[in-house]
Amino acid sequence: MKTIVLLLTLALAQSVPAQPASAKEPRQHPALAEFDTKGLDDMRARVQAAINRPADLSPEKVAAFEKIRRAAQGGDTVAQLDLARMLHDGEGTPRDFDAGLAWMQKSAEGGYGPAQAFLGVAYTLGQGMAVDRKLGEYWSRKGAAQGVELANFTVAMHFENIHSSAEEQAHALRWLKFYAEKGFIPAYNEIGYRLMMTAHDDAQRKEAFGWYMRAAKALDPPGLNNVAYSYEVGQGVPQSDEAALGWYEMAAIAKSPPGQTGFARLLEQGRGGPTRQGPAPKPFELYLLAAKQGDAEAIERLVKVYDKGELGQAADPAQAALWREKLRLARTP
Question: How far apart are CA 190 and CA 166, in angstroms?
Answer without folding.
Answer: 17
